[in-house]
UniProtKB/TrEMBL annotation, chain A:
Lineage: Eukaryota, Viridiplantae, Chlorophyta, core chlorophytes, Chlorophyceae
InterPro entries: Dynein_IC, WD40/YVTN_repeat-like_dom_sf, WD40_repeat_dom_sf, WD40_rpt
The entry's keywords: Cell projection, Cilium, Cytoplasm, Cytoskeleton, Flagellum, Repeat, WD repeat
Compositionally biased spans, kind Low complexity: 646-672
Top-level taxonomic group: Eukaryota
Source organism (scientific name): Pleodorina starrii
Pfam families: WD40
Name of the protein this chain belongs to: Dynein axonemal intermediate chain 4
Automatic annotation (TrEMBL), chain B:
InterPro entries named in the record: DYNLRB1/2, Roadblock/LAMTOR2_dom
Source organism per UniProt: Pleodorina starrii
Keywords, ordered alphabetically: Cytoplasm, Cytoskeleton, Dynein, Microtubule, Motor protein, Transport
Protein's job: Acts as one of several non-catalytic accessory components of the cytoplasmic dynein 1 complex that are thought to be involved in linking dynein to cargos and to adapter proteins that regulate dynein function. Cytoplasmic dynein 1 acts as a motor for the intracellular retrograde motility of vesicles and organelles along microtubules.
Gene3D superfamilies in the cross-refs: Dynein light chain 2a, cytoplasmic
The protein, known as: Dynein light chain roadblock
Classification lineage: Eukaryota, Viridiplantae, Chlorophyta, core chlorophytes, Chlorophyceae
Transmembrane parts of this sequence: none
Signal peptide location: none
Length: 1049, 99
């Protein structure tokens, strides 16, 4: 039984048996299974090896005999492990009979040299099958014998073990003897079936067996944690222990230490292997300012808002709409994600264009761009680009490639920036005028520079000295040395004129001019006027630049110091007045007044190419922002060739005035309703056609001017017909009402900046049939709504309500007053006078109309509501009457005032004396009225042209202004004179309207050349007077003047 | 002519205006009325950075505020700068010049 093939642990019993094996096998055995099986004690082995030597030699002899006996027995090997046969099966299937034979063979106890089984198998089983059969048949070992063999084999093994043990303990001899003893019988019994393969020599060979100690294998090792006390390490360990004990001790002593039991759950841990990508970490830093953050969040908010507006728009939005948005200045911040695509594409085009325009030479210059031939292609490309966003087909010439789009269009916010820049430059250029407008007295240093600058503006073309003054606007430091020294040297010689030096330091040019002027007194009046042609008043303008009296005083001193020019205080005025051809007596009065003389100074013209040439028909200040002036333009005068056939109302009125004037002269001041009625009916026939023609031919325009930009309106829009009246609402400052020549009343919301009216009257909703001459919002206080009242040539005074659409109600239909006013001898006298007058054909043609009017209505031209009683108003009519009416009675007049002999163009209540009003008429006169008196208190007439507008001064109860058709702007102060205006301004154009600025001593007026002129008036306002003082002054003046006129009468 | 062009023309026509330059946010002058490119380039290089500084200042003081306009008054000129996100518009004016 061979245990040699089994794992080493079971191989132990075979060890001794190996000793019993044939000596020829031993070397192999030892080499194949090295000693040192686990259970073999290492201590015993060496001894065994020692003894084995002897035993081998001993056994040789026995084996020898053994072999000799059983050398032929079948060396069959069987492997049994734990009682199971584990013998390897042969790879070849053998004959069962042969196997049987082999089986039988294996039963033989001779199994020691079983490791050669295969060798022998190869020899026996393959080559000697026949032999097996023989053996099978012949030498068959009985079954019982096999069993016995097993038992004996086991015994033998046991014996071997004992033998080994004995060999260990007692010596070899006993063991071998026992082994021999036990083995003896079966060997001898067994027949030797197989031939002996080993030669004798093999058996003779001595066998060496060497046993080695195996290397120590550490399966687990735990180092001791104790340290010997005498080592070096012990000290540190002890120290650590002591610290730990200390820690424990202090821990227990603290308050937080709680000696309590706690039950804790055992954290179940499970370890799993997970395969994942390597985590990439990256750190970056960014610096953000507070406004970065603010912007970012705003952009996010906007993006969110956009996304809410159109969820898919954010992604879909093409570059095209985005560009158009930017061109429109809608998107200010392109940082929002939505704008990203469009933004970049716009930039690309910008860059592309920029190259072409920058290096294209002429394309970079605006002027050449406007005028040159080469840039015309650029220009058309411009317009092409403009039109693109709107999808309008572009009529671009072939010369303009599409890539020549204007890069400026893509810049968001550019229009606003340009507007701002325009304002800034305007403020720079008009700083002095604006200061004057604002009634700001410049500080001495600034003032001198201001005057110098203004002088430079006025007299820049004077050459030499004048130019020097220009360059010295603000610099007291960097001026030309020659000029700097001059005032210094002059100051001591001037003695008491200490303020003169300050004036002179910056006004060197002025100083230099003065001697020259004084040397040539004769030139004095001419020279300045040549230099400042736009200013008709030459030197007086210069004097006024400084503003207040202080400055003028210094100016006067410099006059005097310059070489004795003029005669004391009023010298400068004398010169200016002389130039303007004022009446001698007034001139004398003004000269007596000296510094306090009222005077006027032109500030600027509000005009731009868009408005130039259009007649300024009406103006209105914004009530909330008094710097904003709305101006209505509309040309209702026609070229003289048409005037004869296609009469406008205005010309009719002029003709009326002339006719009436003629009639007045002829008929000795009793005008009467007859001539008025006749002409007005004629005019009413012509107005319809004229209105139609006007609406077709000329569009009106409303422009909004402000002090921010004096050369371009803030905004303007066109309307379908000439604008004849406008007014801002008081409580809704953005609401503007306008009246048109075609009778329309329209309401605009100027905040929306849309050129279309919010509301508009049409023929179904009370539209006037004739031009609307005045519109006015009635201020009934903030609680009540604010009705609009309009008056028109069609004779209706209409109140409009905008609460629910534009609803109208007629306050009054103005009826003719002929019968009631003058039905009798005056009328016939007037008619007779008209017949006598050669020019009054109209009146002569229709004498019957005195009795039967074609139209029972007369034409309204103006109205004004009383501030004393909000229901009372005075309406001015074309036939020369003024009617005091009440909104409560629409049928009759409360009072009628007669006196004007031409159409009354304007009427206004006094802002101080509430029952007094003033009217301007085409009969060349301005008349002052008082309620309760049907004849005028005072009559003013300065020229022989119609007075188109009259306005009370808001700051002085005795001052009013008027404009005439001959282009005179007159400021009257009837406390000074009722004969001549205290000041006037002559222009070449026909003036049509006039306004005092509500907050500053400024008057603006407009005329047919489309310019709105602003004038600063000096020494007229008594704005610091109390109302009582104003009234007293007014009353005194009127009393004196009325007495005078009565005395004269 | 577009609004922009007309406004530009108007600005250039003002009294004392020496030059108008529009520089985009990459520092490239889009428009210039200067005859010499060197002058344009100098302004286009220098002014926007100053405007940025000014804007940073304004915005640092109050993040919700923004720079609207910048004026630089020198002995000879006044440089007016309107700085926006996309561009810088600058006008050089000689305030003492006559029209």
């Amino acid at each position: 039984m061979s245990d040699q093939k089994t794992p080493p642990k079971s191989g132990l019993p075979t060890k001794p048996s190996s000793g019993q094996q044939g000596p020829g096998y031993q070397p192999r055995q030892s080499s194949k299974w090295p000693p040192g099986a686990p259970r073999a004690s290492t201590t015993a082995q060496p001894r065994q090896s020692v003894s084995g030597q002897a035993r081998g030699s001993f056994r040789k002899s026995t084996r020898q005999s053994n072999r000799s006996q059983g050398g032929t027995e079948t060396e069959r090997l069987q492997v049994v492990v734990d009682g199971v046969d584990r013998t390897p099966k042969p790879l070849l299937s053998l004959n069962p009979t042969v196997l049987k034979g082999v089986q039988n063979d294996t039963t033989t106890p001779n199994s020691e040299s079983s490791e050669f089984f295969m060798d022998r198998m190869s020899t026996t089983a393959f080559t000697k099958a026949g032999w097996y059969s023989n053996a099978d048949s012949g030498t068959h070992t009985p079954k019982s014998e096999i069993d016995y063999d097993y038992e004996t084999e086991k015994n033998r093994e046991r014996k071997a073990a004992e033998e080994m043990a004995m060999a260990a303990g007692y010596g070899d001899d006993a063991g071998t003897g026992a082994g021999d003893l036990a083995r003896g019988p079966p060997r001898e019994e067994e027949p030797p079936p197989t031939p002996v393969l080993l030669s004798e020599r093999d058996l003779e060979r001595s066998v060496y067996l060497t046993l080695h100690e195996t290397e120590t294998i550490f399966i687990w090792q735990a180092a001791g944690v104790t340290v010997a006390m005498d080592t070096e390490e012990a000290k540190t360990v002890e120290e650590a222990n002591r610290r730990y004990a200390n820690l424990l001790h202090t821990k227990q002593a603290t308050d937080k230490y709680v000696d309590a039991e706690a039950q804790t759950l055992v954290a179940l841990t499970k370890s799993r292997d997970v395969q994942s990508a390597v985590l990439v970490t990256r750190s970056s830093a960014v610096q953000a300012t507070a406004w970065d953050i603010s912007d970012t969040f705003r952009a996010l908010d906007e993006a969110a808002a956009d996304a809410e507006d159109d969820p898919r728009g954010a992604a879909v939005s093409a570059s095209m709409p985005s560009i158009s948005q930017m061109a429109g200045g809608v998107t200010k911040y392109t940082g929002a994600p939505k704008q990203g695509g469009g933004d970049t594409s716009a930039r690309v085009t910008v860059a592309g264009i920029n190259r072409s325009s920058m290096f294209g030479g002429g394309g970079t210059s605006f002027m050449s761009l406007a005028a040159g031939a080469q840039p015309s292609g650029h220009m058309s490309g411009l317009s092409a680009n403009l039109n693109l966003p709107n999808g309008v087909p572009v009529e671009a010439p072939a010369a303009a490639p599409p890539e020549l789009a204007d890069p400026l269009q893509a810049l968001s916010g550019l229009p606003e920036a340009l507007m701002l820049m325009d304002y800034a430059i305007n403020q720079n250029n008009y700083l002095q005028q604006l200061l004057l407008y604002r009634d700001i007295q410049p500080l001495p240093g600034i003032r001198s520079s201001v005057t110098a600058a203004m002088r430079g503006g006025a007299a820049s073309s004077g050459g030499g000295p004048g130019d020097d003054a220009d360059s010295d606007v603000l610099s007291h430091t960097g001026g030309a040395p020659g000029r700097d020294t001059r005032p210094l040297s002059a100051a001591p010689s001037d003695g008491g004129r200490s303020h003169h030096s300050e004036m002179g330091r910056s006004g060197g040019g002025f100083q230099q001019q003065q001697p020259r002027m004084s040397n040539l007194p004769g030139q004095l009046s001419r020279q300045p006027s040549e230099r400042s042609i736009p200013y008709s008043r030459g030197l007086s303008l210069r004097d006024g630049h400084g503003g207040g009296g202080d400055d003028r005083r210094s100016a006067r001193h410099s006059h005097g110091g310059g070489g004795g020019f003029g005669a004391g205080g009023g010298g400068g005025y004398a010169a200016s007045v002389a130039e303007s051809n004022w009446p001698e007596e007034l001139l004398q009065e003004l000269a007596d007044l000296g510094d306090d003389a009222p005077r006027m100074e032109h500030l600027w013209d509000w005009v731009c190419p868009m408005t130039a040439g259009k007649n300024v028909a009406c103006m209105g200040w914004n009530k909330a922002n008094p710097d904003l002036l709305a101006v209505g333009y509309g040309c209702y005068s026609f070229p003289s060739g048409n005037a004869t056939t296609n009469n406008t109302t205005a010309q009719n009125q002029q003709q009326q005035a002339q006719q009436q004037a003629a009639g007045t002269e002829a008929g000795s001041s009793s005008a009467g309703g007859a001539s008025g009625g006749g002409t007005s009916s004629a005019s009413s026939g012509g107005t319809a056609a004229a209105a139609a023609a006007a609406s077709d031919a000329i569009k009106g325009l409303v422009a909004f001017w402000s002090l921010k930009n004096l050369q371009h309106p803030l905004w303007s829009f066109e309307v379908k017909a000439a604008v004849t009246a406008l007014d801002f609402s008081t409580y809704s400052p953005n609401v503007l009402a306008i009246g048109l020549y075609d009778g329309t009343v329209a309401i605009y919301d100027i905040k929306s900046r849309q050129g279309t009216p919010s509301m508009e009257s049409d023929v179904h909703s009370g539209k006037h049939a004739d031009p609307v001459w005045k519109v006015k919002w009635l201020d009934h206080g903030p609680e009540r709504d604010e009705p609009l009242v309009s008056i028109s040539t069609d004779g209706r005074v209409t109140q409009w309500s905008i609460a629910k659409g534009l609803e109208f109600s007629d306050l009054m239909k103005l009826k003719r007053m002929a019968r009631r006013g003058a039905g009798g001898p005056p009328t016939t006298a007037a008619a007779a006078a008209a017949k006598e007058g050669g020019g009054a054909k109209a009146a002569a043609a229709v004498p019957e109309q005195q009795d039967a009017f074609i139209s029972r209505l007369t034409s309204g031209m103006a109205f004004d509501f009383s501030s004393r009683d909000e229901r009372i108003y005075v309406a001015a009519t074309e036939d020369g009457w003024l009617h005091k009416c009440s909104t409560s009675y629409s049928e009759q007049y409360l009072e009628s005032y007669r006196g004007h002999m031409g159409p009354v163009y304007q009427v206004q209540f006094s802002p101080f004396k509430r029952d007094m009003f003033i009217s301007a008429s085409g009969d060349w006169t301005i008349r002052m009225w008082q309620e309760g008196r049907d004849t005028p208190l005072l009559t003013f007439q300065a020229s022989t042209t119609e007075v188109n507008d009259v306005q009370w001064c808001p700051t002085n109860s005795t001052v009013f202004g008027s404009v005439t058709a001959s282009g005179r702007l007159e400021i009257w102060d009837f406390s000074l004179s009722t004969v001549k205006p205290v000041m006037h301004q002559k222009t070449t154009m026909k003036m049509s309207c006039l306004l005092f600025a509500p907050n500053y001593p400024v008057v603006v007026c407009g005329g047919e050349d489309g310019a709105v002129k602003a004038y600063r008036i000096f020494n007229v306002s008594h704005e610091y007077d109390t109302l009582q003082e104003q009234l007293e002054r007014l009353d005194d003046c009127i009393r004196a003047n009325v007495m005078k006129s009565q005395a004269a009468a | 002519m577009s609004d922009i062009e007309s406004t530009l023309t108007r600005i250039q026509g003002h009294k004392g205006v020496i030059g108008v330059i529009i520089v985009n946010n990459q520092g490239v002058p889009l428009r210039s009325t200067f005859e010499h490119d060197a002058m344009t380039k100098q302004y286009a290089d220098l002014i926007p950075s100053l405007a940025d500084l000014a804007r940073n200042l304004v915005r640092d003081l109050d993040p919700q505020n923004d720079l609207e306009f910048l004026r630089i008054r020198s002995h000879k000129h006044e440089i007016m700068v309107a700085a926006k996100d996309d561009f810088v518009l600058l006008v050089i004016q000689d305030p003492s010049a006559s029209a």
